[in-house]
Amino acid sequence: MIGLMKHRTATVTRKTRETDIAIELDLDGEGKARIRTGIGFMDHMLELLARHALLDLVIRARGDLEVDDHHTVEDLGLALGDALNQALGDRAGIGRYGWCLLPMDDTLASAALDLGGRPYLVFEPLHRRKIKRFDVGLIEEFFRAFCTQGRLNLHAAQKYGKDPHHGYEALFKAVARALRMACERDPRVRGVPSSKGRI
């Protein structure tokens, strides 16, 4: 019966004087992604997110990259969080919680999240230096914006590891797997998974 339910989807556009972003999200997809943000590293990370969360994701973004990557990265988080929130609807029937401990070569990353409606981020990175020209400090801004608009609590950490690329790749994969678990429909859940009766 669950397999016959229609896909949970959302289409979001966000246009400001600094960015122009369009997102199509299908939470019940196959992990397909078409992403063009103008920031190669973010394209790669968001493709990993889609693949390992098994969601279909189309993102087109243009931003004032001649100024800085900050506006584009933060607004990507806001728009993607908004799409997640819309696709989840009232959040009835979902698992709500998800977690993952993910190894990648020298790196171990963890993610635990709650789709319970209260935004919060705990972010513990090991690596803060640039990868090529990309300032990895912006990843925290991305996740904070994602949590705010997506109405979720996320604890994400790089436990150890030497290679910064592996560190952030493992982190995005861990978040993806945790998100996949939390979004999955559970046939035993009746209504919203909260003692309050709503999220």
Describe what you observe in this structure.
This protein has 199 residues and is an alpha/beta fold. The chain has one domain (2-183): Ribosomal Protein S5, domain 2 (2-Layer Sandwich). The chain has 4 helices and 8 strands, in the order E-E-E-H-E-H-E-E-E-H-E-H. The strands form 2 sheets. Strands 1-2-4-3 form a 4-stranded mixed sheet, with helices on one face. A 4-stranded mixed sheet has the order 5-6-8-7, with helices on one face. A hairpin with a 3-residue loop joins strand 1 and strand 2 (19-26). Helix 2 (70-88) runs parallel beside helix 3 (138-150). The chain is globular, with a radius of gyration of 16 Å. The two termini are 24 Å apart.
Structure, briefly:
It contains 4 helices and 8 strands.
Question: What is the total number of structural domains?
Answer: 1
Q: At the first level of CATH, what is the class?
A: Alpha Beta
**According to CATH, what is the topology?**
Ribosomal Protein S5, domain 2
Radius of gyration: 16 Å
Strand content: 25-35%
The assigned CATH architecture is 2-Layer Sandwich
Major sheet size, sense and barrel closure:
4 strands, mixed
Give me the CATH superfamily.
Imidazole glycerol phosphate dehydratase, domain 1
Strand line-up in the sheet with most strands: 1-2-4-3
- Assign a percent range to the helix content: 25-40%
**Low-confidence parts lasting 5 or more residues at pLDDT below 50?**
none
Count of DSSP strands: 8
**Cα distance, first to last residue?**
24 Å
Question: What is the residue-mean pLDDT, rounded to a whole number?
Answer: 94
Order of helical and strand elements: EEEHEHEEEHEH
- Indicate the overall shape: globular
Total DSSP helices: 4
Structural class: alpha/beta
